[in-house]
Design a protein that fits this description.
Largest sheet: none
Strand content: under 5%
Order of helices and strands: HHHHHHHHHHHH
Oligomer: single chain
Helix content: over 70%
Low-confidence stretches: 308-312
Distance between the termini: 33 Å
Number of strands: 0
Radius of gyration: 21 Å
């Protein structure tokens, strides 16, 4: 049952992060303005992400209901699911999740003409952000009491939203660069503006992830011993290690690769080489990001240590 729950959590986080990231990318950088870039992907990827989000929301509810029943077979019982949905804290949050997932799925299925309107992208960004918040609000962060119980969930929501702004938008950036590489030998001013703007947005997102991640780690395990003597702590250490690797790749992109692409004195061959390196690094970041999401999905099913400040 835990394996099935972890898979549903992985699909939920991955789907809603992708939905949020692509919609944020479209809202912020408006790839529709460059008629040479194929826009079909920007319409189809959110639909796929919304379907995955809706399906995983239902699966997550089903598996949680199964764990609360006397045996695994009760996961398919409508009575058990209804009891969880209407009589538990998780269920009260998940009602909003299911409604938001259904609305955002309908929004992604609207016509391409409507999707080109910026308010549509803003609407999907808002709904997917709400979905991220509901997912974060069902984890270990809501187990705290007192002042910690009020602060920790908010920190967790900001942490996941910042991560989604980074991880979820990487595929959109990679697709834009891949499409542009097919069309021209050197990057246009539009592509250069895109890279420069994304670099700034990515720096803010990484900073927020790092800051809120430190706070979250302190809330969940307030000692080095707790990080290494428990299964939760060891998974958390693996997550932090992958995150630091991802930050290292992002730093190379920000301070080495991007300036070389922006340098007007660079030769076409040098610029193209740096663009290829940037695209490769984006793939590496995406791979590390998927591994991190997998570890986060595992963390939600593992009991955390209980630090002393949980009773604040």
């Amino acid at each position: 049952m835990n394996a099935a729950l972890m898979i549903s959590r992985f699909a939920q986080f991955g789907g809603v992060m992708l939905l949020f990231g692509i919609s944020l990318f479209r809202l912020r950088f408006n790839p529709e303005s460059d008629g040479r870039i194929c826009l079909r992907w920007y319409r189809q990827a959110p639909i796929a992400a919304a379907i995955i989000t809706m399906a995983s929301s239902l699966a997550w509810l089903d598996f949680v209901a199964g764990t609360m029943g006397d045996d695994g077979s009760k996961a398919a019982s409508l009575r058990t699911i209804a009891a969880v949905l209407f009589h538990t804290r998780f269920g009260h949050v998940w009602q909003w999740n299911l409604v938001a997932a259904a609305i955002v799925l309908c929004a992604t299925l609207t016509s391409a003409k409507i999707q080109h309107v910026k308010p549509w992208a803003a609407f999907v960004v808002g709904l997917s952000a709400f979905l991220i918040a509901t997912s974060a609000w069902t984890g270990h962060a809501v187990m705290d009491n007192g002042l910690t119980g009020a602060i920790h969930p908010l920190v967790q929501v900001v942490h996941v939203l910042a991560a989604a702004a980074w991880l979820g938008s990487l595929p959109a950036l990679g697709f834009a660069l891949h499409s542009a590489a097919k069309l021209e030998a050197a990057p246009t001013q539009a592509i250069q503006r895109l890279i420069r703007g994304y670099s700034r947005m990515g720096s803010i997102a990484v900073g927020l992830v790092l800051f809120t991640g430190c706070i979250d780690t302190w809330f969940m395990a307030d000692s080095l011993e707790a990080l290494f003597r428990t299964l939760y702590g060891r998974i958390l250490v693996a997550k932090i290690s992958l995150f630091l690797l991802m930050v290292g790749v992002a730093v190379v992109n920000r301070f080495i690769v991007t300036p070389a692409i922006m340098n007007s004195d660079s030769s076409v061959a040098t610029t193209q080489a740096r663009l290829r390196q940037l695209r490769r690094n984006i793939v590496i970041e995406q791979t590390l990001g998927l591994l991190i999401i997998a570890l986060v999905s595992m963390l939600g099913t593992v009991p955390p240590p209980f630090p002393a400040h949980m009773d604040m």
